[in-house]
Design a protein that fits this description.
This protein is of the alpha+beta class and about 210 residues long. It folds into three domains: about 40 residues, no CATH class; about 120 residues, Pnp Oxidase, Chain A, CATH 2.30.110; about 35 residues. It has six helices and seven strands, in the order H-H-H-E-E-E-E-H-E-E-H-E-H. The protein is extended, with a radius of gyration of 24 Å. The mean pLDDT is about 90.
Length: about 210
């Protein structure tokens, strides 16, 4: 009997997905990807930098009936922390106390973390498993962003199964308000400097005309 090979992308490319790819003509390209590097499992230094730069991410879970749920998680850059090459952690802040994500994780630990960088039109998909850690005050303090005004309640630890980067097609380019404000402030400061230089020239060089 031939040995069935498995690939990291099998976390998403099930037999049903592969059958659809074959029917629609994309299976050969993805088969070549599988035979080569396939998808990454370990968190690279580049991915670590991108993860820890995020201020807004989405975490998908599924309950025991197969009902999916997506929850937004946000905080200052660095609220997501890479603890090692396979582990991402974050302090789970107190919110509306529905605990849907935590309940789903007890029924089914499989998760999907979706990161999108609108400014650079880049999206990263992370498959894995996750668990909630309660009562570990040392870990909670380690993951709590310094000076952030939120009440940490528990910790979520995500173990990476595989990750992939999508193409930028159809991602609208948007910028963070803080980045836009910084660019505007820099421009205004430069304008003020140039206006001061012009005023100085007008006051001290008679030949300069408007």
């Amino acid at each position: 009997m031939d040995e069935v090979k498995t690939f990291t992308s099998d976390v998403a490319f099930t037999d049903t997905v592969k059958a659809i790819q074959s029917r629609k003509g994309s299976r050969a390209a993805y088969a070549r990807l599988e035979a080569g590097a396939s998808w990454e499992q370990a968190i690279t230094p580049e991915l670590k930098a991108e993860i820890e730069a995020q201020t807004s991410v989405f975490l998908a879970t599924v309950n025991r009936d197969g009902q999916p749920y997506i929850q937004h998680r946000g905080g200052p850059a660095g609220f997501l922390r890479v603890l090692d090459e396979r582990t991402i952690g974050f302090a789970d802040f107190a919110g509306n106390r529905q605990y849907i994500t935590q309940g789903n994780l007890l029924d089914n630990p499989k998760v999907h973390l979706f990161l999108i960088d609108y400014a650079n039109r880049r999206r990263i998909k992370v498959w894995g498993t996750a668990r909630v850690v309660e009562g570990d005050e040392e870990l909670l303090r380690r993951l709590m962003p310094a000076g952030y005004r939120a009440r940490p309640e528990q910790v979520v630890l995500l173990t990476v199964t595989a990750w992939d980067v999508n193409c930028p097609q159809h991602i609208p380019q948007r910028f963070e308000a803080a980045d836009v404000q910084a660019a505007i402030s820099s421009r205004d400061q430069r304008i003020a400097t140039l206006e001061a230089e012009i005023a100085h020239l007008r006051a001290n060089v008679p030949s300069v005309r408007e």
